[in-house]
Amino acid sequence: MRGLKSEIGFSLIVSFIVVMLSIALLINLNNQRFDIIEGGDFSDPSFWQCRGNATIQNGKAHLTINETQGKNCSFSAVHQGAYPHGWDRKGQIKEVEVRKNEASEKALFLRIVANRSEFRFYNRTESIVNIGVMIWIQLDEKYDKPINESRQLELDINFASFLYGWWTNYTVKPITWDTHFIGYSTGEDDDYHYVDSANNVMFEANRVYEISIDVGKSIAKAFERFNIQWGRLRSFDIYIEAKYGYGEVNIDSVEFFYAPKANISQIIFQSMLNGFLAFLATFLLIHLFKRMRGLLSSPLRSYSQHQIKQRTAMSKIGGDL
Ligand SMILES: [Ca+2]
Known about the structure:
By secondary structure, the protein is of the alpha+beta class. The chain folds into two domains: about 1-30 and about 260-285; about 35-260, Jelly Rolls (Sandwich), CATH 2.60.120.180. The chain has three helices and 17 strands. The strands form two sheets. Strands 2, 5, 6, 7, 10, 11, 12, 13, 14 and 16 form a ten-stranded mixed β-sheet that branches. Strands 1, 3, 4, 8, 9, 15 and 17 form a seven-stranded antiparallel β-sheet that branches. The longest helix is centred in the C-terminal third of the chain and has 57 residues, at about 265-320. Calcium ion binds near residues 41, 59, 60 and 252.
């Protein structure tokens, strides 16, 4: 009985230590911040791939677009990471994994400091100029397979989007998007596309804006819409695109980071669970150890006693002879 008490006592002490360590570790882990992209201050252009009419100089990225033919998807961008389907790649971003139920709690944020030029609109029916980010998310192991064998997710978040034409009664109007489709109408791919807008819109030209974007929120919407359970961040672009339009944007800096919030009740629950498991493990190990010691010692003892008896008997016989 005293043995059992000390076993429980010892297991409780181990369990308590595990709970305390778990709390400390989980709080520490949950308050960390991980940068998903590198070179976001544009002091070193080698982190980036420039696409279209894009340059990086003097700590800024400068993107220009001038589209006069009415082509869709004409853009200039700075890019890093790996596009799907074996398209271009430049370095590697931190490939954070996101599950459906935790997408909004993942705390994925973008902070962009930028200013834009005056935009020009050429077509009276429909002209458009857009500034945004494009994030490719891997959904399965076929990420690098050709477009007809693989379906991945492109998330597009605009933070300055302006429309001019018949639709807007011939005035330039900021517009917000919340739309989705599968595959480009041009047949360029067969991927999931989700187009969202950040709340911040760069209303005025030649003014510096600090834009913050809750990327996790947009990922949650896209996952919900397409019933996606899991994804991994693979590629990041900032772009300016236009259809019958002209625009420029200067980007001073971009930060894209992952900073999970400490969820106290979750941490306590997880730590208690760890403590309980540690208690069970310790208690069972002590028992197992004791039993093994018992099993090892008892046959030895009976064996040697048996031998002693035999020897005494033998010596008795010898004595008689
Ligand atoms: Ca800069």
